[in-house]
Fold this sequence. Notes:
- The complex is a heterodimer of chains A (494) and B (495).
- Helix content of chain A is 77%, strand content 3%.
- With 494 residues, chain A is mainly alpha-helical.
- Chain A has a two-stranded antiparallel sheet with strand order 1-2.
- In chain A, strand 1 (60-67) and strand 2 (70-75) form a beta hairpin.
- Chain A is globular.
- The two termini of chain A are 29 Å apart.
- The model of chain A is unreliable at 442-453 (pLDDT under 50).
- Chain B has helices spanning 5-23, 26-54, 76-103, 106-128, 132-151, 157-187, 192-198, 206-223, 231-238, 241-266, 269-275, 278-298, 303-324, 327-358, 369-372, 374-388, 394-408, 412-438, 455-473, 476-491, and strands at 57-60, 71-74.
- The mean pLDDT of chain B is 89.
- At the A-B interface, strand 1, helix 6 and helix 7 of A face helix 17 and helix 18 of B.
Amino acid sequence: MxxxxxxxxxxxxxxxALVGIQLTARWENVREAISLIAASTxxxxxxxxxxxxxxxxxxxxxxxxxxxxxxxxxRVEPLxxxxxxxxxxxxxITTLYAIGYMRGHGEKNQARFFSLFAVSIGAVMGIAFAxxxxxxxIFYEVLTLCTYPLVTHxxxxxxxxxxxxxxGILLGTSVGFFLLAIIATWLLAGTLSFTEGGxxxxxxxxxxxxVLLVLFVFGVGKAAIMPFHRWLPAAMVxxxxxxxxxHAVAVVKAGVFVLLKICLLIFGIDTLxxxxxxxxxxxxxxxxxxxxxxxxxxxxxxxxxLAYSTVSQLGYITLGALLATSAGMTGSAxxxxxxxxxxITLFFCAGAILVAAHKTEVHQLxxxxxxxxxxxxxxxxxxxxxxxxxxxxxxxxKWYLMxxxxxxxxxxxxxxxxxxxxxxxxxxxxxxxxAFFSRGDQDVEVTGAPDAAATSAIKEAPLPSLIALxxxxxxxxxxxxxxxxxxxxxxxxx
Amino acid sequence: xxxxxxxxxxxxxxxxAPSCLLIRKATLVWLFTLAVSIAALxxxxxLLQQVYAxxxxxxxxxxxxxxxxxxxxxxxxxxxxxxxxxALSSVVLSAAHTSVQKELEPTKQTVxxxxxxxxxxxxLGIVATGDAFNVFVFLEISSLSxxxxxxxxxxxxxxxxxxxxxxxGTIGATxxxxxxxxxxxxxxxxxxxxxxxRIPPLSESTxxxxxxxxxxxxxxxxxxxxPLHLWLPNAYSCxxxxxxxxxxxxxxxxxxxxxxxxxFTVFGVDFSLSHLPLDTLLIGLGLVGVFAAxxxxxxxANIKRMLAFSSVAQIGYMVxxxxxxxxxxxxxxxxxxFNHALMKGGLFLALAGLxxxxxxxxxxxFRGLGRTMPWTMAAIVVGGISLIGMxxxxxxxxxxxxxAAAIEQQFWxxxxxxxxxxxxxxxxxxxxxxxxxxxxPEINDGATAKREAPLGILLPAWLLIAANIYFGIDTRLPVExxxxxxxxxxxxxxx
Lengths: 494, 495
């Protein structure tokens, strides 16, 4: 099969999965088998694009002109392929996990859940392979709209309130700023295609470019830069697999990926350096990193804490992209991968704890390491990956990000990154450590005797979920030793 | 035969209207009306093709030469509007039988179709004619039949709404008549092309200015441009559902056409936009209209009323396009003319299905609708998304052009306000979504069972909703026609 068809197949598979799941909605085993097959096929298809890409083949597909000059078209470029690889691989794992979780937790409307999941991944593929900003924007909005029912899956008042914030901020920023910036770019540069070195002609007014950059950075609300980060904690009302794949990987990474791509291929590194607003936005990203870490420290709800940690880590990626140095960009791109593996594992663990032990708060987790050793070990490994210390892949991305601040001689930002790393140690590591080394006594005191009996009866989460979180945790370690596959892509892309 | 198309377009429904009374049996009358509407659609398609290929067509009534006799003149602009009106009317009519049977007493049904055809003929006449006085005549035909159509609403408030519209509409029509009278006094002609040639030398004259002012305000009343919109929400919410869908999809479009015709063709761009500060006025009123009407829409409990206010807001967008006055902006207006007809036509038809099943369309009726009427609700959601202007729907296309036009002219503030306005649409549409999908159905008669709207209404509604998506992806037809029409408006005038 030629590569262009392969590329289009990545968009088609999720749609087929949607149809398949809807048709077999009654038989849950068949339905879930379809999900798994679709996910595996998708990942396989994406991997088939890897070698031709590195060989320098142009892999592109053109669908139609929606408006004159504005085409719905796709082209594989290294960073997009990297993002697609991560998202499609983690879709397999998440599906596996979700099967255990959704059944274990007795969730309703599972067919709707799995079909929308497939559509979301389709939208992510569209974002990853979009040839121009216009196509990208379309899939960006599709992703927002089709994740809304996932976020509000529970259908409760709380879910509805969360959904409101989610949709309000994501639609508000994307229509309010992003669309405006895209149209302005179109009128200014005459093209929306991602071009190496940027699309703006050298003479373009720097003030105008500053305005555009600000509009882009705020407009891509999925990157969750403060003050437009509130949707992410709000989205935590969703079932855990959604939080795991979408709000640790697909949606948020789509955000930072778009930013990275805009910095690299719409502005271009050289232009980006000269824009006055870059400096300010760098500090904004820095503040976002720091504040989110501090807020994370104060969160008692485990998923909320993880959400704020995500906001903070997304700040790293944005910051790396805005540094406009090759090390910074590399760090950014690598962190998309590393954080994806780390954070998805953490969410898997949070979900496993919820299903097996019905606990959601951080203080309830003391001593849980004895009942759920696998889960807690995975939690420990993933925490290390987020913090960025060996033996995990997170080391690499943090290393390059530091190097980036060094190259750009941003000493304050360098300090900021260090402080924030310390903070991330403080908000993540105590959880697994206390789970292993402190006793569960206090928990019994707080919640009373009946719960003590329940505590001793806690077992590990359902097997599919356990396998899933084992794989992603192993992935964190694997990426320390073999980051090369991704590194090659990033090198080709930057 | 082909040479007589311009007059056939109007005369066909006009002659058919009284014939309805001869047929009498409701189903037959409906089929007859539908056939007439489809015939009119065929005529308009032929006209559009002909105009697109060979340029404007003129037709002299009774063989009298142009400045003396009445002339029909079809150019790309009115061919486009004729197509929109006939197409939307045909789709709406196809749903009419089911809805009218339920909402109107049997004795009134024949009259309904006769009035409908009269109104239809009036609207087509306004668009097709090239004679200023003829415009007034057809305006009265369509208005009078509209008042009666609105008064057919089963609620007694419909009478009050119709009366209110009668007063406002008559003021508007009188203003237009006074304006036309002034113009006749100054130029001695009623033919639009002739007027366009004779007005420029007189542009300093106070009488011509007064004429323009009267005509402008008169049209804006019919258009329901903020702040002259007060009749519209009542009229829309009290009229029978089919009438609402028909009026929302066609009547305001025709009024907007008149505004374009008078400002650009009759008075000319130089007079209206350069000589007078009309551009600022239109942009200002349009934007205020967008915000005021959208905000009011959020607080409406009657959903027909909510969408009526939303219509006022959408009219604001179209008027902003006229105010900016560049080729791109006019294209945005012409696109939105078509797109808004598709959105509102689809949405109001879906509401007709709701009224059919539940007897009303207040926000309470929406509770749990996602479960009980999934297809109707899905239509409303897709239509709403198009109204908001999400990509891959028609709403996005017109918004793209409008924002681009504003940025081209460096009107950054306008661009930002247009965008903010569309976010307000999210607020009122999502109110429906939340009610439909997050609240339990009202417990009356075992309401959890599915009771989807009848196919007779659902299919036409979905046809329009599907068109929202189709023309949002394959935009060639509306974009090409509107581009050519806006070039024509700015470049050629009436020559």
